[in-house]
Amino acid sequence: MTDLEKLNEEFKRKKENNKSSSMSNIFKQIEKRILTCRFCNKELIDLKCNCQGFIENEKFELEVERTEEERRKNDHKKRLRYKKESLINSLYIPRRYKGVDLYSDWDINKTKLKDYINNIQYNVSNGKGLVLLGSEGTGKTRLSFAIGLYIASNCDIKNIDREKFYNIFKYAMDNANYYETLKKKDVLILDEVGLKQLTDWEIQITYDLLDYRNEEMKYTIITTNATKEELSNFIGKRSYKRLVESCEFVEFNGKSRRDK
User: Fold this and answer.
1) Backbone φ, ψ for residue 5 (5° rounding)
2) pLDDT string in tens for the chain (260-residue length)
């Protein structure tokens, strides 16, 4: 090794030693800062100090944390309120049914729906829907809106929609993308099912819709003026079977509310 090479090696060793020494000093300074109060420079005991500056600063940090937590809660409430309003708007509730309420308009505890409504979140989550049967004017549509509003306000769902049953076939023919979106809604209310006999194509579309919703456990409410037998003839036996598998049937008897 030449003299020049020896000098280079010596220089490198000194440089490394200085670097290690410098880093050691930095760590010592950091350790000192951690172990001493930044307000009075006294040694910290259990990372705390009883000086006024430390105490006031601790109060300030707690207040900042409390304020931030309050802000997060308020933001969460706003998001929930916005989601609830969006879901309710998705129902397109006619003026006649604005303000309908599940408990003030019906004495649910005296109806067959008592246990069903008390377990509504479970029923919605598991796709256990409703078929409301009965003659015209007995309150089926009104009740379907009330249940839809209750679900939108109280249940954990992403989306909800309500359609006249015969619009489904228009969408299937003219707007396939919207039909597919409608078919996959978490909650779907279909009003006025079974007003007339369906064509073979309409029966197939009905089956496609109900079979998908049954398989994916999507929640469905159906209102119809038909009896069970008439409904089976209207929509086809395969579609009716899907309703039997996925829905609870509730029959409305009595006089029409519209005659009062």
Assistant:
1) -65, -40
2) 555 555 556 656 655 655 555 555 554 544 445 588 889 998 888 889 999 999 999 999 999 999 999 999 999 888 888 888 888 888 888 888 877 887 777 666 656 788 888 898 999 999 999 999 988 888 888 889 999 999 998 888 999 999 999 999 999 999 999 999 999 999 999 999 988 889 999 999 999 999 999 999 999 999 999 999 999 999 999 999 999 999 999 988 755 555 55
Class of domain 101-259: alpha beta
| Residue-range domain boundaries for the chain | 20-89, 101-259
Give the Cα separation of 227 and 194 in Å (integer).
Answer: 10
Residues 6+ apart with CB under 8 A from 168: 179, 182, 190, 205, 206, 209
Spell out the residues 6+ positions from residue 239 whose beta carbon is closer than 8 angstroms to its own.
203, 206, 207, 210, 211
Q: Beta-carbon neighbour count of residue 182 at 10 Å?
A: 19
Enumerate residues 6+ apart whose C-beta is below 8 A from 46.
none
Pairing of strands 129-134, 187-191: unpaired
- Taking the C-alpha atoms of residue 130 and residue 116, their distance in angstroms, rounded to an integer, is 9
On the 0-12 / 13-18 / 19+ scale of CB atoms within 10 A, 238 is middle
